[in-house]
Write a structure and sequence with these properties.
It is a single chain. With about 400 residues, the chain is of the alpha+beta class. It is rod-shaped. A hairpin with a 2-residue loop joins strand 4 and strand 5. The chain has a 5-stranded mixed sheet, with helices on one face.
């Protein structure tokens, strides 16, 4: 595929045409920076200033796409202009070529051109003054500084400002991108937290409802049906209360400004009682003191989900819940009779173990669950110090 050459900017065409027409107008009016003399041959040709003027104007379309080429050709044209009557417009156009070479050229050109023009300015003033032994020779250096050094320094200053503005823009874009990534991660983490809370709050109650409704439908015993309906009602009321608590947390515009109470380890007794009412033979051995609120909530939810899984999956037998507090961690163990091969008594989403593992990981703890002989064992260790 052929490479497409860049096209000159339309403003550069305006500069070239305007400069050429202005230079021709000044030539027609006889306005020149020098007077005629017999010392230079080309001064005798009236049209001579138009040649460097046309060449310099022709370099203007190159000021953005080929700035170094335009400057080199323009320098030759300016040298030619010095042996004619000259044109002010040629000099002005050349200063623009110097400015453009620094502003639009390569980084190397942007560094070198100001130094070169600076040295030419110093040499152009010092050398003639030293050779002629006349301070008037310094004016040559002043002229070179006005024509070359000043536009080069201006171009370097503008380029520095543009690069600083571009760097600031890139930093702003990166900051916005990082902020968006943080926001996305925060939203994802919050959705995961809400999913864990919703699952842990409702799954226990719905599992009990599903199991006892199945029992009520399958057994033609009024007492069993009545007991099952009592358990169903109790779990329905408890589940609705948990849902109201979660909705109260999520509804920022709620008129109730008091924070909803989170479950604590003191509520494990009531949790075990509900599990017993659901048909589990549960023993609770809680040997713990005061623990941080995040650890307390995670421990409660892990025990709650373990009892829910036992209600759905465990075989007949005793379920043991044990909490032990050591110097820097809380050890949670829940064991239940293992019933391999059989399906669950109530359908589940399969996210219970994932939620427990996430809760432990968020606190820097460890979690493991799986069969151990005839038992299904769940163990979680949660650190009690913030540095872990």
């Amino acid at each position: 595929m052929a490479r497409t050459l860049p096209r000159p900017h339309h403003d550069d065409w305006y500069i070239a045409v305007g400069g050429l027409l202005g230079g021709v107008l000044l030539w027609a009016l006889g306005i020149h920076p020098r007077v005629s003399s017999d010392d230079l041959v080309l001064w005798g040709a009236p049209w001579a200033p138009l040649v460097p003027l046309a060449v310099t104007a022709a370099c203007e379309p190159l000021r953005r796409i080929r700035p170094r080429t335009g400057l080199l050709i323009g320098t030759g044209a300016l040298a030619l202009d010095t042996v004619t009557l000259g044109s002010i417009v040629t000099i002005v156009l050349y200063t623009d070529l110097v400015y453009a070479a620094v502003l639009y050229g390569t980084p190397a050109s942007a560094r070198r051109i100001p130094w070169i023009t600076g040295m030419l300015t110093v040499l152009g003033g010092v050398v003639p003054a030293a050779l002629w032994r006349d301070p008037q020779g310094l004016l040559i250096g002043v002229g070179i500084g006005v024509v070359a050094l000043a536009p080069a320094a201006t171009g370097a200053t503008v380029r520095d400002h543009r690069e600083a503005a571009e760097a600031a823009r890139l930093r702003a874009e990166q900051t916005a991108l990082l902020a968006e990534m943080d926001r996305t991660q925060a939203v994802t983490a919050e959705r995961a937290r809400m999913a864990r809370e919703l699952h842990d709050m409702v799954a226990n109650h719905l599992s009990a409802i599903a199991i006892h409704s199945t029992a009520a439908l399958s057994l033609d015993d009024p007492k069993t049906t009545r007991d099952a309906l009592a358990v169903i009602r109790e779990n329905s009321v408890a589940g609705l209360a948990e849902m109201r608590r979660l909705i109260g947390i999520l509804r920022t515009g709620s008129g109730d400004r008091e924070p909803a109470a989170s479950p604590t380890l003191d509520g494990l007794g009531a949790l075990v009682d509900r599990a017993r009412a659901g048909g589990l033979d549960v023993t609770l051995d809680a040997g713990h003191g005061k623990v941080p609120a995040p650890v307390e909530l995670a421990a409660y939810r892990i025990v709650q989900e373990s009892l829910t899984n036992a209600l759905k999956h465990a075989a007949k037998g005793r379920v043991q819940v044990s909490l032990r507090q050591h110097s820097d961690l809380l050890d949670i163990r829940v064991t239940s009779p293992y019933r391999p091969g059989d399906g669950p008594r109530a359908p589940g989403s399969g996210s219970g173990l994932t939620g427990m593992r996430e809760r432990a990981a968020l606190l820097g703890g460890a979690f493991e669950a799986g069969p151990r002989g005839a038992q299904w064992a769940v163990r979680a260790t949660l650190p009690l110090t913030e540095g872990d």
